[in-house]
Amino acid sequence: MEIGIVSREVVRPSSFHVHLLKPFKISLLDQLTPTTFAPLVLFYPMKSTHLKGTQISTQLKESLSKTLEHFYPLAGRVRDNLIINDYDEGVPYIETRVNTHLFEFLQNRPMELLNQCLPYPPFSHQPNPHQVPQVAVQLNTFDCGGIALGLCFSHKIIDGGTASAFLRSWAANTRGGYHKAVKYENLSQASMIFPPQNPSPNHQYLSLMEKIWFREAKYKTRRFVFDAKAIATLRSECKGERVPNPTRTEALSAFILKSTMLALRSTASSRFVLHQAVNLRRLTEPRLSTCSVGNLFLWATAAYDMEHAAEMGLHGLVARMRQGVGKINSEYLKTLHGDEGFPKVCEYIKRMEEVSAHENLEALKFSSWVKFGFNEVDFGWGNPIWSGIFGEVGSNSFQNVTFFKETGGAIYDNAVEAWVTLDEKIMSVLEHDPQFLALASPNPSIIV
Q1: The model scores a pTM over 0.90
Q2: Could you count the other beta carbons within 10 Å of the beta carbon of residue 265?
Q3: Catalytic pick among 155, 227, 275, 315
Q4: Does the annotation count 50 as an active-site position?
């Protein structure tokens, strides 16, 4: 398969008044978040009744420009780790041609090819945040007319909730339907609750977060699908007195954690740390708008001694996981609010660093995308037939991370995909573990 670039351009907000708006303040949580690109690829099989080639691209660019009028921070660039400005910098927009048919591409289960559909390398550390666009788009058109919409979101100011709200707005504008205008004050709620430090926080805190996020190693990424029966089995095994009704994300996280621990038995690792991303939007008082721009999540942490945890039942792993998540609650978040919250956020970072500083330690991160609706982004051509995340990551990338997403389509009803990135030596053991594969299907067919 070859992907050839047809054109490169920049899409800017449609209204000139956006360029007159004040700089957008990022939140304290954004200031302490490293810069990297979170990817997503949406696949659409275009029907004969749909628009063709250049018409699709023209429509997408016009609606993107309109959407950036409301989500104007996503058109700018980060300055001094404090604000976003220069909204006329815009969104890079690349068009390519793919010399194969969409269904042939998907039948080959294209994990290693997904990165070619993206405008930037996924989850690699970006050392110059002031040069990084907040969003980048790559429209890949197949010989049959089907498309893959490759998207990269700067994790400096965009988490899964922000990306979901932006895509819903862009899709609605493309359909030409009514879409409630985004209120500017909703966009900046994060910086009002978690105001930025001016001047920017000491670089040592950002450096600590970079050490927690990234590590130099050789990684492998694999896609595993858990069907409804497997999820029900795991949830049943995870039930216990302390957690009588585990969620599917908890059950899957515990199973992957346990399986990875077993894969690590032959290594020198003696301690395991789990970091679970917790969405803060539902925990703040009052609740934050779904259109709030920023990294509105914290990592809940649970530490496990390898020797004992490897023998621990799944219900014990889930109980400790639930305990860690439970510490990030409404009362705790109140201590992080306002100008007085900075010392508390620094304490949170130092605790993470202390937990992660063990000499023979492996850390695993989990993030659930199952409720973000990425399989329901309808630009007027119906829902995507499938959504992918990425193929491989670079050597200095987001370490040992698992993303959960819904499968979409009718093949795997109520199934969940786990996109697992691990050190290649650990992955080589995990992907051949018969107990793990009894419940996890490795990269099964995407289409019939």
Answers
A1: yes
A2: 11
A3: 155
A4: no
